[in-house]
Design goal:
Rossmann fold, about 20% helix, about 575 residues, globular, alpha+beta, single chain, seven-stranded antiparallel β-sheet, Jelly Rolls, 12 helices
């Protein structure tokens, strides 16, 4: 097998490999790779997790990188551009002197037990898995963890349990609070959650006969061809999950997959004990090892929120670093940031001075200029919140004194089962937009974003789905970020909130007073963007994003609230943008 990397002659890795820095003293690919497949790792209760071990063939002891998820471990080298292949490239790390252990969680890939979806049992298993890896004859006792998405979530699960041999983690594209990822302030992200549960259910009981059979081997050969592999660097594999709806019709064992879906989508619409068990945020203060966080700015409806909530909660970690990536920053199969990961783990697991800790802790691409920027804090210290008025005439303006705040604008959201053949020409529109004048100069935005919305509804519950877009001179609108709120869950925890970042506990529902103006604070997912001179800033508000014509970032759409309502928005509503001082 060829060694993966970025140098000539190596199997080329897709995606950005660093956060714009040059590193030194990195491990060289001097080892050959061997494997031992389908190894049983015992847990404290006697259950066994199935793992594959990829390690240097040369005798010796090495630091270990552990990857764990419910996704088939057998396909992590398949090369397909899909969101399940996220453990990292063994053929990059193993030749550079690491053991790569890829494990399946309970109830998947031949592992004992039942999948619990980010539950307490999973945390205990991650502790046991780390300590098992540390005790093997090929391990030097220094363990890190690797992988994105669910592979990142299991890293946090291990870290909050404090296994003695876990030295550092790198949870890129992480979720630390399952409710935050699955239910956006009460609006269930069924465009993601439904295919996610169905596809794990379809793959969980499949064996080596499928994943390592003749057909899969042929697919590996084709998918890893250099020409085809290079094309995958411009695909969003996680968003591709929503394209698997046809496969959802295939039969899978309803237990536990349909049970978990029903719990997440139907039985627990608000935060409660079920969700609390799947929320690590209050436990992150236990983490006492170095943590490297990262995400791409496009990951608005899934992992980007968790990146920032995790950053805020890691109060006891001795070192926290962050890398925030631009377009196609995360590639599927996941191969981006591997040189960054090597610099991180060479430092913490091998004691090498790689330069990974040089400079400010947070580095981010600013889409629009596509350059790396650095800051010691998030939000960046050089930003100031600036109010933009959603004026009654449909304009979006920072000129608060001159804005048209009188008047209102209306749109209508319709529920199901109305037996109406078509929309009437007399109906209010199904969405509203506010658009600025073309910008005279570049506008750099980085940090917390919030909408202060003054609105009335003719139903006792509605959805507010708000998108911030960058509109080019030709009229093309590029969604930047979004905010979501089910109106009945609008209560704010004032003590935990800050300007630009309201905190909504989503524990208590309160009906919307029909016909009365209500003040809402709707947080957008934090983001960064340069709106170039000549472009315009746009805010779009809808009450239902199920219609295919309605834009949805990454294609993730929400279950409809189901009510029919005429919604009236007042010209006193405000968008709060974090504008960098250098361009204000």
């Amino acid at each position: 097998m060829r060694v993966a990397g970025i140098d000539p002659g190596e199997r080329h890795l897709n995606g950005p490999q660093t956060t714009g820095r040059k590193y030194q003293n990195l491990s060289e690919p001097t080892f050959t790779m061997t494997s031992k497949l389908d190894v049983a790792a015992p847990m404290r209760d006697g259950a066994e997790l199935m793992v594959d071990v990829w390690r240097p063939a040369e005798p010796g002891i090495y630091p270990v990188l552990v990857s764990a998820s419910p996704y088939p471990r057998q396909i992590q080298d398949l090369g397909a551009p899909m969101g399940f292949i996220e453990a990292g490239a063994s053929d990059f790390f193993v030749p550079r002197g690491y053991v790569h252990v890829i494990a399946n969680l309970r109830g998947t890939g031949g592992s004992d037990g039942t999948f619990g979806f980010f539950d307490t049992q999973e945390r205990h298993d991650m502790y046991d898995l780390v300590e098992w890896a540390a005790a093997q004859e090929w391990s030097d006792g220094n363990v890190g963890m690797l992988g994105i998405s669910y592979f990142a979530m299991t890293q946090l699960e291990a870290a909050v349990e404090n296994p003695p041999h876990l030295r550092a983690i790198m949870p890129v594209a992480v979720t630390s609070d399952a409710y935050e990822a699955c239910s956006h302030h009460g609006l269930v992200s069924t465009g993601f959650l439904s295919p996610f549960m169905a596809m794990i259910g379809l793959t969980a009981d499949k064996t080596d006969k499928l994943w390592r059979g003749t057909l899969a081997d042929a697919a590996r050969h084709v998918l890893n061809s250099p020409e085809l592999h290079a094309k995958f660097g411009r695909m969003n594999g996680e968003a591709a999950v929503v394209l698997l709806k046809r496969l959802m019709r295939l039969h899978h064992d309803p237990h536990p997959w349909d049970d978990l879906w029903r719990d997440a989508v139907v039985a627990h619409p608000r935060r409660d004990e079920w969700w609390d068990e799947r929320n690590l945020v209050s436990l992150l203060s236990r983490v006492n090892i170095p943590v490297y966080l990262g995400c791409d700015w496009q990951n608005v409806p899934l992992h980007l929120p968790g990146t920032f909530s995790t950053l805020d909660a890691l109060t006891a970690s001795p070192e926290v670093r962050v890398g925030l990536l631009g377009d196609f920053g995360l590639t599927w199969p996941w191969e981006s940031l591997h040189v960054e990961a090597l610099a991180w783990y060479d430092h913490w697991l091998k004691g090498r001075d790689t330069g990974i800790l040089d400079g400010p802790a947070i580095r981010y691409v600013l889409p629009g200029d596509d350059e790396w920027h650095a800051t010691a804090t998030w939000p960046p210290e050089d930003t100031v919140l600036q109010d933009w008025v959603l004026a009654g005439d449909g304009t979006l303006t920072p000129d608060v004194a001159d804005a048209v705040t009188e008047g209102t604008r209306r749109f209508m959201t319709l529920g199901a089962g109305l037996n109406r053949p078509e929309v009437s020409e007399t109906d209010p529109p199904s969405s509203l937009e506010w658009t600025s004048e073309p910008l005279d100069t570049d506008l750099d935005v980085a940090g917390d974003i919030e909408l202060h919305l003054d609105a009335a509804a003719t139903a006792s519950d509605v959805a507010w789905i708000v998108t911030l877009s960058d509109v080019a001179p030709d009229g093309t609108a590029d969604p930047v970020t979004a905010g979501y709120l089910r109106a009945t869950l609008r209560a704010i925890d004032e003590a935990a909130s800050r300007p630009g970042a309201p905190v909504l506990p989503c524990t208590t529902a309160e009906a919307v007073p029909v016909g009365e103006v209500v003040h809402y604070r709707i947080p957008f997912v934090p983001n960064a963007r340069r709106f170039p001179a000549g472009h315009r800033v746009r805010v779009t508000v809808v009450g239902d994003d199920q219609p295919a014509a309605t834009p949805a970032i990454m294609g993730f759409r929400h279950a409809s609230v189901g009510t029919s309502s005429i919604n009236t928005i007042a010209g006193t509503s405000r968008l709060r943008l974090p504008v960098r001082a250098s361009v204000r």
